[in-house]
Write a structure and sequence with these properties.
This protein has 412 residues and is an alpha+beta fold. Helix content is 13%, strand content 32%. The chain has seven helices and 23 strands. A hairpin with a 2-residue loop joins strand 19 and strand 20. It starts with 35 loop residues before the first strand and ends with a strand.
Length: 412
């Protein structure tokens, strides 16, 4: 397996139809001419139509998520300068902390990874997995989910249920059930919800570390809402460990050419053994790309899901407690400032504030390692745990000083 450089998504002008979380940012006269990320929730956030005589509950409000990262509020001065020169310019090149979690420890897990035995035909796979796939309706739109236990726990994407007070689940037998949100994690785009319903059929989960490029997979979900409930598409594994930056967060994903469209979010990517090996999350489309779908690997999702069930949030993530933006080479020359991370805001009583860091400081290093970007700062910080001490090198009025910061824990 191999890694590629993160894909950086930019919105450009032209003419196109936009959908997903970004509806409110654009009008029908805008366009794109580069690769564009569309989150795969309901393409139009319309009220779900009746499915076999049953009305799918939902809302039509379109929610725009704000990534919750330990060092948040990422704003680029250089982008602002460029935007004044070119009104069509927009950038989304933020690379926040990775999605790994090491805080699960010995907590119980509802996800057991099965071994590979007896490959199945596609109709057999569909027959096996379909009872475990659900439709989800919320204020964010419609999406899909995967039943993970007989007592009603369901995995989906965070953007499927974000900012929603009411969530409804449509089962394979056409019954509808109100769901409660157990926990969401925007950084990994994962969420767990729960329903109270009899005779639920949990999915079988596979080991995504065993995937190889070229093997057959299928995706099941509800593209464009419940009108196409339970649609099945097939393809292959196109790539592994693909880095994709979405909504200020870099995810490591499985790439597939199985069609993943609006409403497929949260649904399963299934191997030839009928095992869920990924959670469908995103697609890339544009004038130069099509047929590129992405799923969260099951092995990456497992510790996050366990933490959400056991704690309601992902534990063990270190926190510095600042909001800021990069001072890159161009910005440095323009504003006569050192390259690094400009501190724009400090959370009240945050570790950085307690250590003596102020708004207007520029962080130029951490533990003796030079950093020039928020991503670089996060990468080093994420090697530590809450209550660990790191040393931040800070430029203030042209003088560089060191500050000892005792890391906190990121919480919702």
């Amino acid at each position: 397996m191999y890694s590629v450089e993160p894909t950086k998504i930019k919105w450009c002008r032209g003419r196109a139809t936009f959908y997903g979380r970004y509806d409110k940012r654009f009008d029908s006269n805008q366009q794109y001419n580069t690769i564009t990320y569309f989150p795969t929730d309901d393409a139009y956030h319309r009220q779900p139509k009746k499915h076999n005589g049953l009305k799918a509950l939902g809302f039509v409000a379109c929610a725009c998520a704000i990534s919750a990262v330990s060092i948040a509020g990422y704003i680029s001065v250089s982008d602002a300068v460029e935007a004044r020169k070119n009104p069509s310019y927009s950038s989304n090149e933020i690379l926040p902390p990775t999605a790994d979690s090491s805080a699960v420890g010995d907590t119980p897990s509802l996800i057991e990874l099965a071994s590979r035995e007896n490959a199945m035909s596609i109709p057999e796979i569909v027959e096996k997995i379909t009872p475990s796939v659900v439709g989800i309706s919320s204020a964010a739109g419609t999406g899909s989910g995967i039943i993970m236990s007989e007592d009603g726990y369901i995995i989906t994407n965070a953007h499927v249920v974000e900012n929603s007070d009411a969530v409804s689940v449509l089962l394979h037998d056409d019954s509808e059930h109100n769901a409660i949100i157990i926990g969401t994690d925007k950084r990994t785009d994962l969420a767990v919800i729960k329903i109270n319903a009899p005779s639920l059929v949990p999915a079988e989960f596979g080991n995504s570390d065993e995937l190889v490029v070229g093997e057959t997979v299928i995706a099941i979900g509800n593209p464009l809402g419940f009108d196409f409930y339970g649609s099945v598409t097939g393809g292959i594994i196109s790539g592994l460990e693909r880095s994709l930056t979405i909504d200020d967060v870099t995810l490591t994903l499985i790439q597939t050419d199985a069609a993943i469209n609006g409403g497929n979010s949260g649904g399963p990517l299934v191997n030839s053994y009928g095992q869920v090996i990924g959670i469908n999350s995103a697609k890339v489309a544009g004038t130069i790309a099509e047929g590129m779908g992405f799923a969260i690997p099951m092995n990456n999702a497992k510790p996050i899901v366990d933490d959400l069930i056991n704690n309601g949030y992902v534990t063990g993530r270190p926190l510095i407690g600042i909001s800021g933006f990069d001072i890159d080479e161009r910005t440095s020359k323009y504003y006569n400032m050192p390259m690094g991370v400009y501190v724009a805001q400090l959370a009240p009583s945050s570790p950085a504030s307690i250590a003596g860091i102020r708004v207007g400081d520029v962080i130029v290093g951490i533990n003796g390692e030079q950093i020039t970007t928020m991503n670089g700062l996060n990468e080093v910080k994420n090697k530590f745990s809450p209550n660990d001490t790191v040393t931040l090198s800070v430029s203030r009025n042209g003088i560089v000083s060191n500050f000892s910061v005792i890391l906190g824990e990121e919480k919702p």
